């Protein structure tokens, strides 16, 4: 129990701190106003300078230098303004809520109180009034219980005595709550935070990070950090705080754009987009696997995970499943490596390179170049040497061509503007030099398409090469005719500019290994959320594509909605086995924070009894199971929505597939104010939303209605993971609606875990 005078003392300190923050803010505001004026000033002068007459040759050089200098001045001024704006934002946030924690420590007999907030604030005398939550000493706040505690310093671990841990909730400079705690971070504040309504954007969790989440955030040693965490255990939250932590500790070596987060869909990207800015950091890059693949397969259409899932629902025979399992495995990617080694001394599937409708380099010519190279050269090097020979030969052709009459004719026909566009600002020693330059530019432009084709490796027919590879790896248990039919299908896909999803990573891998290309060495960290939605083959390809990146992979094998129908075995074991050379750290999160205890316990009952899953102790209503008839289903749903709307702002109706979502949406009247969410949707409005479950991955809603969770729709063992994912999207309330008969997966659960309201009375 906190004494009243303790609160008054603490409030006094808050006031002193916020007063100083506001004073600093006033200075920054002034500097910002000056900086804005300065930028405007320079821009204006820059504008005036460009008005100097540039047709006089003597003036031209001088004007260029002046313009360059002005440009640099503008860039510096803009940079300065940006810096001041970010300081302004940080101070504004601190003035409202300067800190959320206090630790009292004793070190060598000397006692000290430290206050922890979202950013450091030092007063005029360089005393820390607030420590950044990422400072090494702040780890005590997250990790330590009262008594001796160690924390990392640049000189090695140091032990201090922790004598007090206090948590605050401060708003508009006023303490709303404060608690003393001996837990790592007390539950009281967490209760308050988790009880709030969902928001369009995810919130940062700095004030209440839990110990095991802190381990994820502060890991700096692993090359591959794998986090298996139950639904709602804070995996996504932890990874975002981790990004903020890494940026803070490597300010000089690491930029936000050297980090990439693979996210499940665009909606999710939008949902998490405010966390880093709220911590004063820039966002990392975000990409979905579909975007990544379609970028790398420019011009071809790659099968989409969501569409494939929908198709699997109607027809997915066992042999197709086995085929997919193989193509998505580490063995398959290893077979590609072996194939590349083996074919490097054989002719490759090259394409003729055409120019003006006739082959300029035939595939035989290209193969002759390739095969003449030393046998012991690496395949990628051989390819690059071949490419370089092709470019040299093209250059030779360009040198010959400049002498030809058609070029002289073309030069004669140039208008003044076209002529000037070619020479630009260049100066020439003589007229002949100028002519020679123009002739060369014209011939280069003439051969540009051919050059681009060579440059982009279009002379390798990777699809045919892939089909040849496939012909060498038919698994013994697979009937040869079925395997051949799959190869024929891959060839047909290619004709139609399509790529099957399970072929995508292998084809890219084959292409990159044969051509020694496709690697991005600049990315330092990669984060893969919902790791269970990626195949091992995709992981291997991603690691190949970003060879210098440390990898953080997070997920929950119980939420493998896309692969549960055909994968078996333990995903994490397969993943670790695929990267034996990487330094591994594995962390498990078993406590679920998102939902109330009744919802989490209900979801848990679906999983095998040995599953380590613990509900955070937050009270709430029992889940409701409504079984209705086809005729009454609409009325029952509307009635339930009406009930939920009394207390919740965002209610998601989740369906198994898109078709059900569309049909349901069409059947609701406009005054029911529902929004249909699709693959292309970028942001989440409040109100009632309808979406297929797979688009709700990683998201959360105040209330969820699982619609048509019936004996006919959710009846396979693999549907368990779908249902678990569905239920765990809810924060405060869940209703499951079954039509005809409720899914056996639900009816098997202990009746104490839910309630069944009386059936709706219809006329
Ligand atoms: N330490 C914490 N303090 C406050 N809130 C937390 C904490 N950890 C998790 N949460 C909250 O719990 C919810 C779930 O977190 P998050 O989405 O990060 O979990 P997840 O493990 O990625 O979930 P899922 O796998 O189900 O998508 C979020 O609302 C998040 O803000």
From TrEMBL:
Residues 208-596 form the UvrD-like helicase ATP-binding domain. Its EC number is 3.6.1.-. It is an enzyme of class 3 (hydrolase). Signal peptide: none annotated. One of its GO terms (biological process) is recombinational repair. SUPFAM superfamilies: P-loop containing nucleoside triphosphate hydrolases. The keyword Coiled coil applies. Keywords: ATP-binding, Coiled coil, Helicase, Hydrolase, Nucleotide-binding. GO terms for cellular component: cytosol. GO terms for molecular function: 3'-5' DNA helicase activity; ATP binding; DNA binding; hydrolase activity. ATP binds at residues 229-236. InterPro entries: DNA_helicase_UvrD/REP, HelD_bacillota, P-loop_NTPase, UvrD-like_ATP-bd, UvrD-like_helicase_C. Residues 18-45 form a coiled coil. It comes from the Bacteria. This is ATP-dependent DNA helicase. It comes from Latilactobacillus fuchuensis. The gene is rep.
């Amino acid at each position: 129990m906190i004494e009243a005078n303790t609160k008054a003392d603490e409030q006094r300190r808050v006031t002193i701190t916020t007063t100083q923050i506001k004073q600093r803010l006033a200075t920054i505001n002034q500097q910002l106003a000056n900086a804005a004026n300065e930028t405007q000033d320079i821009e204006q002068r820059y504008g005036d300078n460009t008005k100097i007459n540039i047709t006089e040759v003597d003036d031209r050089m001088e004007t260029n230098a002046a313009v360059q200098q002005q440009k640099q001045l503008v860039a510096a001024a803009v940079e300065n303004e940006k810096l001041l704006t970010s300081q302004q934002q940080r101070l504004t946030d601190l003035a409202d809520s300067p800190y959320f924690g206090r630790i009292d420590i004793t070190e060598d007999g000397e006692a000290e109180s430290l206050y922890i907030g979202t950013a450091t604030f030092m007063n005029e005398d360089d005393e820390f009034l607030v420590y950044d939550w990422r400072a090494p000493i702040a780890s005590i706040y997250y990790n330590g219980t009262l008594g001796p505690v160690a924390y990392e310093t640049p000189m090695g671990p140091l032990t201090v005595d922790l004598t007090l841990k206090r948590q605050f909730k401060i708003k508009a400079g006023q303490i709303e709550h404060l608690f003393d705690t001996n837990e790592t971070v007390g539950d009281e504040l967490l209760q308050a935070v988790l009880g709030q309504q969902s928001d369009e954007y995810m919130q940062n969790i700095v004030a209440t990070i839990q110990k095991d989440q802190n381990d994820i955030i502060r890991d700096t040693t692993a090359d591959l950090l794998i986090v298996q965490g139950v639904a709602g255990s804070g995996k996504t939250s932890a990874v975002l705080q981790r990004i903020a932590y890494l940026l803070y500790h490597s300010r000089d070596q690491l930029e936000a754009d050297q980090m990439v987060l693979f996210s499940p869909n665009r909606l999710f990207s939008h949902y998490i987009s405010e966390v880093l800015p709220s911590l004063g950091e820039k966002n990392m890059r975000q990409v979905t696997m579909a975007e990544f693949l379609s970028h790398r397969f420019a011009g071809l259409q790659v099968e989409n995970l969501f569409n494939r899932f929908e198709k699997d629902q109607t027809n997915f025979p066992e042999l197709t499943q086995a085929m997919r399992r193989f193509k998505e495995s580490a063995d398959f990617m290893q077979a590609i490596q072996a194939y590349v080694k083996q074919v490097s001394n054989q002719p490759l599937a090259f394409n003729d390179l055409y120019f003006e409708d006739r082959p300029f380099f035939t595939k035989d010519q290209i193969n002759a170049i390739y095969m003449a190279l030393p046998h012991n050269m690496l395949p990628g090097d051989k390819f690059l040497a071949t490419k370089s020979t092709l470019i040299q030969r093209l250059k030779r052709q360009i040198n010959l061509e400049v002498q030809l009459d058609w070029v002289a004719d073309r030069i004669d026909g140039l208008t003044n503007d076209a002529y000037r566009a070619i020479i630009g600002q260049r100066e020439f020693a003589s007229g002949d030099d100028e002519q020679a330059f123009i002739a060369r530019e014209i011939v280069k432009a003439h051969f540009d398409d051919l050059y681009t084709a060579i440059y982009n490796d279009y002379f390798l027919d990777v699809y045919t090469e892939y089909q040849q590879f496939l012909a060498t790896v038919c698994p013994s248990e697979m009937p040869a005719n079925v395997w051949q039919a799959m190869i024929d299908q891959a060839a047909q896909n290619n004709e139609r500019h399509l790529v099957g999803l399970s072929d995508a990573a292998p084809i890219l891998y084959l292409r990159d290994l044969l051509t020694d290309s496709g690697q991005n060495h600049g990315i330092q960290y990669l984060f893969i959320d919902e790791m269970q939605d990626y195949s091992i083959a995709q992981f291997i390809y991603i690691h190949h594509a970003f060879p210098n990146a440390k990898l953080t992979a997070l997920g929950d094998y119980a939420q493998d909605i896309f692969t549960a129908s055909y994968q078996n075995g333990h995903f994490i074991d397969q993943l670790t086995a695929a990267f034996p050379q990487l330094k591994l750290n594995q962390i498990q999160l078993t406590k679920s924070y998102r939902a109330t205890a009744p919802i989490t316990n209900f979801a848990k009952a679906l999983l095998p009894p040995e599953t380590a899953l613990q509900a955070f102790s937050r009270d709430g209503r029992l889940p409701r199971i409504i079984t209705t008839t086809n005729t009454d289903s609409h009325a029952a749903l509307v009635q339930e929505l009406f009930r939920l709307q009394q207390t919740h702002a965002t209610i998601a109706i989740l369906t198994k597939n898109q078709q059900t979502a569309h049909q349901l949406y069409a059947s609701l009247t406009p005054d029911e104010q529902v929004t249909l969410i699709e693959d292309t949707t970028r942001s989440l409005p409040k109100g009632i939303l309808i979406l297929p479950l797979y688009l709700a991955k990683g998201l959360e809603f105040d209330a969820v209605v699982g619609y048509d969770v019936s004996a006919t729709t959710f009846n396979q063992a693999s549907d368990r993971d779908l249902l678990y994912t569905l239920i765990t999207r809810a924060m405060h309330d869940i209703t499951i609606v079954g039509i005809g008969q409720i899914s056996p997966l639900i009816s098997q659960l202990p009746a104490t875990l839910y309630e069944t309201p009386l059936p709706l009375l219809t006329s």
